[in-house]
Amino acid sequence: MTVRVAWHRRIPWLALVAGGFAVAQLALAAPHLGLGWDETVYLSQVDPRNPAAYFSAPRSRGISLLAAPVLAVTGSTPVLRTVLALLSAAALYSAYRVWRPLLGSRRPALAALLFAGLWTTMLYGPQAMPNLWVALSAVAAVGWFLRAHEPSASRAVLLGLGGAVGAATLFRFSDGVWLAAPLLAACGVVRAWRRPAPALAIAGGLAAGGAQWIAEAYVRWGGIGARLHASSATEGGMGLHWAGGDAWRSLNGPLLCRPCTLPLTHPELTLWWLALPVLALTACAVALRAGRPAETVLPVACAAALSVPYLVLIDYSAPRFFLPVYALLALPVATLVGRTVRAARPIPARAAVAGGLAALLVVHLTTQYTVLQERDADARATTGRYQAVADDLRRLGLRPPCLVIGSHSQPIGYYAGCASADVSGNNRNTTEAALLHRAITEPTAALAKARSGPPGYAQDWTAHRLRGTGYTAYLPKPHQHPAGPVSGP
C-alpha cells in the first residue's frame, strides 16, 4: 500500500492537465479559426505586413507584444494559433504551479482542470486576446502574494509577485488595477501581512505594467483623466449598471452581447455558473472554520474585485470578461472538493464521494464541449465572412496601399491588407473631409450592410453588392480618382 501511495503522489497531475489543455486547443479550437475583430486590432499594431488599425482608449498593448515575435517571422494564422496554444498551456502550468507549496500537488491541478475545461478558456487559449492572460497572471499573483508572507520567502517570490501583477496590468490596465487593489488592501488590513516588501512589489509591478498605458495616455489623449474619459465613452458610459443579467444571458454565447437583448441559450447548462458563488462562499466558510482562510478567502476577494467592472459598471457583456474570475474561483472550489473527499469516512464512503464528484466533472466538461462546438462554429462563420468580403474587395481592384471605411472596416481592412478608418462610432479616427481627400490618392472602399444604403459621404459612389456576405461596397467613380480609376472585377 505504501508503494502504491508513493507512486500515486509522483504523478505530475498539473503537467498532465496543461498537456491535455494544449492538445485540446490544437484539436478543437485552433484549426481553421480565422482572426476576430479585436484580434486584428491587436495584431495590426505589430504586424509588419498590415497598417495599424485605430487603437481605442480602453485597450492595452500586452497581447500585441506577446504576438509580435511570431508576426515578425510569419503572418500565418495557423502558426500564430499553434504558438499561442502552446504558450497558454505553459502559462496555465506556471500559474497554478505557484500554488503547489500552498495547496499540495493535486488541488492546483484540479483547479487548472476546472478552469481549462471551460469553453471560454478553450476557445480563447489560442487567440490573441488579453483576458486569458490576465486570468493566469492573476492566479500567479495571488499565489506569489501568499508565499511572500511566509517566513522562508525569498527575493524571487517578491519578483514573481511584482512580475505577475505587472503582466496582468500590461495585458489589460484596468484589470491590473482591480487585481492590485485587494492585494494592497490586504497588506494594510491583515496584521500579519503588514510588511513593506510585498506592498512595494505590487506597486512596482503595477507601475511597470502600466507605464506604457500611462505614457500613451499623455501622448495620444492628453493625460490619464482624458484617456479614462475616452475609455468610458467607448464602453458606453461607465457608471452603475447592473450587468449580471447580461453576463448570464451571454454565458453560452454570443461572444459579444452588445446590446444584450438575446434570450439565454442552453439554460440547463448554466447551473455551474449559478452554483459558483455558492461554492466559493462555502469554501470560505469551511476554510474559516478550519483556521486556514488565507488560501481560500484571498482568491475569492480578488475574483470579486475583478468582477466589479463587468457586473456593475458597463451595460453589456461577453463571456471572456470573466475568465480572471473563473481562474481564481477554481482554486477555492478545488480546495473544497479536496476537503469534502478527505472528510468522508470510512474508505468506501470516500470512494463513493470521489466517484460522484468525478462523474459531475465529466458531465460538466461534456456540456462545455457542446457549447465550445457551437461558439467555435459561430467564430469561424464570422471570420469567414470577413475573409470573403476582403477577397471581393481585391477582385474590385483594392490593393495595398488602400483604405477600407465603414461597417467592420477594421477586421476586413486587416484581411485585405488595407488601412481602416471610421468617421463615427467607437473607432472614429478621421473626418469626412480628411477621408474624401485620402480617397483621391489611394484605392478606397466604403462598406455598409446590404440594406442600410451608402454612408453620407459615399452617396455618389458606385455600389458593388458582395453576394453572400451581407455587405455592399461603395467605390469612388473613376473621375473621382485623379491618380487613376479603381479597376472592376
What amount of the residues lies in strands?
A: under 5%
Q: Could you list the spans in which at least 5 consecutive residues all have pLDDT below 50? A: 1-5, 481-489
Query: What is the approximate shape?
Result: globular
Q: Could you tell me the number of beta strands?
A: 5
Describe the structure.
- With 489 residues, the chain is mostly helical.
- Among the domains are: 105 residues; 95 residues, no CATH class; 100 residues, no CATH class.
- It is 63% helix and 5% strand.
- It has a 5-stranded mixed β-sheet, with helices on both faces.
- Helix 19 links the parallel strand 1 and strand 2.
- Helix 2 runs antiparallel to helix 5, helix 9 packs antiparallel against helix 10 and helix 9 packs parallel to helix 11.
- The longest helix has 49 residues.
- The termini are far apart.
- The N terminus and C terminus are likely disordered.
